[in-house]
Amino acid sequence: MANNDMKIFHSSSTFFTFLFLLLLSLFFSSGRCDLQSNYYSESCPRAEEIIKEQVTQIFHKQYHTAISWLRNIFHDCMVESCDASVLLDNKDGIESEKNSPRSFGMRNFGPIDRIKEALEKECPQTVSCADIVALSAREGTVLLGGPYVEMKTGRRDSKVSFLDQVESSIPNFNDSMPVVLSRFNSVGLDDEATVALLGAHSVGRVHCLNIVGRLYPTVDPTLNPTRAAYLKKRCPTPEPDPKKVQYSRTDLLTPAVLDNLYYKNILRGEGLLTIDAELATDNRTAAFVEKMAADNDYFHQQFARALLILSEINPLTGHQGEIRKKCRFVNQD
C-alpha cells in the first residue's frame, strides 16, 4: 500500500474509532441499557422466587388477583413505558393514571404492595415496581392455565405519571378494529399478537357499563340472541350505576382459565365487547381468530409472544427513573 494510501487509511480508521467511542459514550451517559435475564442474580438472588411465592399465595385466596395483574401490565406498558407509572397514587403533584375513565374497574393494587413489602425485607430498594408488574403478570398467567413467559428484568420506576396519555394509548371497549389495531401496532404488536393479547378477555368479567350499548335500546344483531337475553338479566338497565359492581363473566364455562374458549365464543356471536365481536369479522384478524379457536396450543404460543413484546415496551433502565420504596409513591429526596 502506498504511503498516501496508508495515511488515508489510518486517518479514516482513527475517525471511525473516535466516532464509535463517542456514540458509545453517549449511549452510556444516557443511562440506557438493555433488560437482562436474571438481572437480580447477584443483587437479590431470590427476587423472582419471592414474587412467585407471593403471587401464588395471593392467588389461592382470590383468583381474581391474577386477572388484575394481567390488566396491570397492559395498562402500564401501553402508556409511555413499562415503568410502573400505573401504580402511582395522587400525591405531591402526581395525578394518578387511575383517574382516567380508561382505568375504570381497575382494583386489587394491595397485592402489589404486599409483594413489594416482601422484597423490601429481603433486598431493600433493589427490585423495581415495574419488574413486579411484569413478573406478577407472568406468574398470574401460569396460574390461570396459560403459558410461562421467559421475561427479562432490570426495569426501573417512573418518577412521573402519564394521565394525559392514557386515553390516547389504551383502546376503548367500543373502538373500531382499525383504531385498536393501530394502537397496538404503534407499540410493536402485530395483528396476530393483538388478537392473541385480547385473548386475556377469556378470564374475568365485563362491567355492564361497557356492554349496555350492545343491548339497548335494541340488541346488536351480531350478538347471539341467547347470550343477549342472558346479558339483559345481568344488566337490566341501559344506565347502570358505575359505583355498583354489575357485570357478566366473559366466559361462563371456564372464567378462571386462560384458554381459547374466548375465540370459540366470538365465532358463535358471544363476544361481549364491540372489539371482541369485530375480531371475527375484520379481514385482518378473522383468520387468526379461527386458528386460535381451533388450537389452544397455538393461542398460548401467540399469547406468550404478545405478552413478551408488551413487557418490553420502552422500559426505563440503567440510571433512568428510580427504584421506588413504595410502589404507590415516588421516593422523597
From TrEMBL:
GO terms for molecular function: heme binding; lactoperoxidase activity; metal ion binding. Gene3D superfamilies: 1.10.520.10, Peroxidase, domain 2. Keywords: Biological rhythms, Calcium, Disulfide bond, Glycoprotein, Heme, Hydrogen peroxide, Iron, Metal-binding, Oxidoreductase, Peroxidase, Secreted, Signal. The active site is at H75 (proton acceptor). Its EC number is 1.11.1.7. Residues 1-33 form the signal peptide. It is found in: Secreted. Binds 1 heme b (iron(II)-protoporphyrin IX) group per subunit. GO terms for biological process: hydrogen peroxide catabolic process; response to oxidative stress; rhythmic process. Its cofactor is heme b; Ca(2+). GO terms for cellular component: extracellular region. CDD domains: secretory_peroxidase (cd00693). It comes from the Eukaryota. Its main location: secreted. Heme b binds at H201. Disulfide bonds join C44-C123, C77-C82, C129-C327, C208-C235. The record marks R71 as: Transition state stabilizer. InterPro entries: Haem_peroxidase (IPR002016), Haem_peroxidase_sf (IPR010255), Peroxidase_pln (IPR000823), Secretory_peroxidase (IPR033905). It is an enzyme of class 1 (oxidoreductase). It catalyses: 2 a phenolic donor + H2O2 = 2 a phenolic radical donor + 2 H2O. Ca(2+) 1 binds at D76, V79, D83, S85, E97. Residues 34-331 form the Plant heme peroxidase family profile domain. Removal of H(2)O(2), oxidation of toxic reductants, biosynthesis and degradation of lignin, suberization, auxin catabolism, response to environmental stresses such as wounding, pathogen attack and oxidative stress. These functions might be dependent on each isozyme/isoform in each plant tissue. PANTHER family: PEROXIDASE, PTHR31517. Belongs to the peroxidase family. Classical plant (class III) peroxidase subfamily. This is Peroxidase.
